[in-house]
Structures are given as C-alpha cells and as structure tokens.
Specification:
mainly alpha; two-stranded antiparallel ribbon
C-alpha cells in the first residue's frame, strides 16, 4: 500500500485496513489539522483591517453590529461587554490575528449561555448583518463557527478521553 504525503511517497507493507504505524498516523493527523486551520484562516481572511476600523469609527453603530461585537467580546472573555469595550477590543493591532489564533478549546458553557441570548433572534444571521456591515457579517460568521466548534467538541472530547484511556490501558497490558 502506498501512502502519499505531499511530494513524498511511503510504502507500507501492512494489510489493507490494518493499523498504520504511529509516525504515519501522526503525520496524517498533522496534515488534517493544518488543512482545518487553513480553512478557518481563509474564512477569517475575509475580514479586513479597514473594515474593522470603519466599524470602530461609529459613535453609535447599528444595534445588530453592536450585538455582534458584544458576542465576540463574550467569547474572548473580555470585561465591559459594551460598545465602548468593543471599540477598545477592535483597537488592538492584533485583533484579527487574535481571532485566527483564538483558543476554541477554552470556551466555557457560561459563555455559550450568554451567546445563546443573542442568537435566539431569528434575524441575527450573517446574511441579515451583511445588509448593514460586511465586517459585522464576517465577525458573526466567526461567532457561529465558534458555536459550532463548541457543540462538536462537547460531543467529541469525551470520546477522545475514552480513546486515550483505552490506549493507556493497552500500553500497560503490553
């Protein structure tokens, strides 16, 4: 069985469907993680610094844009969830980078509960916000991506822990 890893090709003599050697599994895992990160990065690359600056320049933004910014603040765990706090958050020169490098695994149930209060409104969607602000819609897409990640991680993390425990038990028996 030949496995292609970028420009390299490795031969593996095992039976089809049999467990692959660990180094190959780890390499494949890394490639999948990198691909997921690139997809996340490309989704966030729709946001431009100029658009964030435009939002920040509003003295009193549309309520939908303000609510989007408040959601971002909640996810980032920032105090002072208000328009003035949001302007301060967006003034950070590394704001867009902080969204890409955001610790998704650190999201708490308390944050999700607060976000649900905002997302209950059926008009609080990226398409509706897009009519008002491109950057606001991009930020809301990021918020929904974090919500989806949290939902999936909540189901997957116990399974990951069970696999790690099973591997540990297997290693002890060998």
């Amino acid at each position: 069985v030949a496995v292609t890893l970028g420009p390299f090709k490795k031969k593996w003599g095992g039976a089809p469907g049999a467990a692959r050697p660990r180094p190959l599994q780890n390499c494949l895992k890394k490639r999948i993680q990198n691909k997921k990160q690139k997809n996340l990065n490309s989704k966030n690359n729709n946001l431009k610094k100029e658009e964030i600056t435009e939002i920040r320049s509003f003295s009193k933004p549309n309520i939908a844009v303000q609510r989007v910014c408040e959601c971002v603040m909640i996810l980032k765990g920032l105090p002072n969830v208000s328009w003035s706090g949001a302007k301060g958050m967006m003034a950070d020169t590394n704001f867009l980078r902080s969204l890409v490098e955001f610790n998704k695994d650190g999201i708490k149930e308390k944050q999700m509960k607060a976000i649900r209060e905002y997302t209950r409104d059926s008009k609080f969607t990226p398409d509706e916000v897009m009519k008002i602000s491109t950057a606001g819609a991009g930020l809301l897409k990021w918020v929904f991506a974090m919500i989806n990640y949290y939902k999936v991680a909540r189901m997957v993390n116990p399974k990951r822990a069970a696999v790690a425990n099973a591997e540990k038990t297997l290693a002890i028996k060998e």
